[in-house]
Amino acid sequence: MNITVKNKKLKSWIKEVADLCKPDDIYVCNGSKEEYNLMLEKLLESRIAIPLKKRPGSFLFRSDPSDVARVENRTYISTPLKEEAGPMNNWIEPSELKKTMLDLYKGCMKGRTMYVIPFSMGPVGSPISKIGIEVSDSPYVVINMHIMTRVSSRVLELLSTDGEFIPCLHSVGAPLSKGQEDSQWPCAPIEQKYISHFPEENLIWSYGSGYGGNALLGKKCLALRIASAMARREGWMAEHMLILRLTGPEGKQYHIAAAFPSACGKTNLAMMQPSIPGWKCECIGDDIAWMKTGPDGRLYAINPENGFFGVAPGTSYNTNPMAMDTLNENVLFTNCALTDDGDVWWEGMDGDEPAHAIDWKGRDWTPESVEEAAHPNARFTAPASQCPVICKDWEKPEGVPIDIFIFGGRRGSVAPLVYEAYNWDHGVFLGSTAASETTAANIGALGNLRRDPFAMKPFCGYNMGDYFQHWLDMGDRLGDKAPRIFYVNWFRKSGDGKFLWPGFSDNSRVLKWMCERVDGKVGARETPIGLLPDEGDLDLSGLDLSTDDMREIMIVDTDDWKAELPDIESHFDKFGDRLPERLKKQLQEFRKRLG
Ligand code: OXD
Ligand code: MN
């Protein structure tokens, strides 16, 4: 081991893991640039990292074709009682799960180095930050954690001899025998993959995958699943939300937090540049918000992350110019295509398709190829500080006061562009029944409609029925200081399958309406699903959109919504007596409004 660790709990945990996993050596990370470069050198030597001539300090990685996204069906919330995990999580009893995983962990790091990664979610030393220690046998994980979290020797100093941390154990699950050559992307077969959480112990065990949320344990595992369980116990909120600051023409600031499922445009909205004159948008975070009530009784949000792990395909100067400008240097790309002149490429990028490229599986690709050049869940890992519109207050330890919550999803039909909740309980009803078509961010079928409450279905570390109650409790606590709640759907399609709403920078028009609602400047019309903009109140100036299309985007078809009721009922039924009475009442009222 390269340094002496002072924290007693950490010291004994490192020993315990090393005795179990049998790595060849142990390296404790300090988060320095030298360390990052050293890891990259190793990855370059073994030809795992591909340098990109066109982007300084940037590298391409190709994963195993079986390890390309989060594995929700192998993700567990392991509480002593199944009811504590609830109907939306996979559950195995802790001692049984630990026994299975201990068998897998036995000797799993042979032939590899065990990295000990001390990291902070949130600024190092801030009272709202949480410290995690990830132990991993993947140098790719180390460099990604350097970007996505704050890895630093200061974290170990802060821990001192007795400080608390969240242990996050990770192995790719591919030990090497003597002389055995490593594979390009070591990982275990799907039936051996386990992404496990023990919320009562604040403990994370991940085995068998090297990809994204399965392996970078600060993100989904700590900052959402474990943090959501802690937040409920401690009276705060850990949410799958972007955070942005919108500034109006008079200089008034509005802070918005929005929950959309994975790969539904959170990064695009977080960095959006308004198409309407006089409005400015700055990014605070693109995926996770931790929120606490402040001394003035309002809700304050921080982004616990340090970087963006964004979906590359579809990102372009047209859809997200600020993301494109974030990606010029010091970026790690995974599963993108490689062009002949040493750049990355993906479907949906600006300009012409390359005449030839190497696809994400390392094969020759031309526009005639049947398969995509980049995997649909190809990603970029980029420092948040490189974003040209990162808000100057993005690391403020006290966070920013939230004015507006947005829920939403990807739906080709039924849900209109925007509506507002009648009140907090109705807003919680909208969040709890949110539905979206599934995307490539999870291994599984694409395009199926599923209920994804608060975009937290894959990320809630306890019974979702109790989570709904926690939202209601937070509303009670916030009272008239609670943010206003809206629901959006950017993805409604016309009969011939075309998106009706231009989206991206034009989404600012919808956000402007929300701000005007908050300020009491515009009215709204009552419909069974909520409050919709009055005709003329949505700023459509300069937008080339036909009146017919606009009408279609805003249609609330009572029959369509009546047809949703059985699905909402069976969704709610899953929670049994954990479903809050106040949501049952919301459903009754909704049914009544539909007539
Ligand atoms: C993500 C996800 O990577 O939600 O953020 O899958
Ligand atoms: Mn996400």
SSE order and pairing:
Blueprint: H1 8-21, E1 25-28, H2 33-45, E2 50-51, E3 59-61, E4 75-77, H3 82-85, H4 94-105, E5 113-121, E6 130-136, H5 139-148, E7 150-151, H6 153-159, E8 166-171, E9 194-198, E10 203-207, H7 212-215, H8 218-234, E11 237-239, E12 242-247, E13 253-259, H9 266-270, E14 280-285, E15 289-293, E16 299-302, E17 307-311, H10 321-326, E18 332-334, E19 337-339, E20 344-345, E21 357-358, E22 364-365, E23 379-383, E24 400-401, E25 404-408, E26 418-420, H11 424-432, E27 435-437, E28 449-451, H12 464-478, E29 484-488, H13 507-518, E30 524-526, E31 531-533, H14 547-554, H15 558-573, H16 581-594
Parallel strand pairs: 1-5, 3-18, 4-9, 6-8, 8-10, 13-25, 25-29
Antiparallel strand pairs: 2-3, 5-6, 5-7, 9-10, 11-15, 12-13, 12-14, 15-16, 16-24, 17-23, 18-23, 19-20, 19-21, 21-22, 26-29, 27-28, 30-31
Helix pairs in contact: 2-5, 11-12, 11-16, 15-16
Bound molecules: oxalic acid (OXD) and manganese (II) ion.
At a glance:
The chain is built from 16 helices and 31 strands. Strands 1, 4, 5, 6, 7, 8, 9 and 10 form an eight-stranded mixed beta sheet that branches.
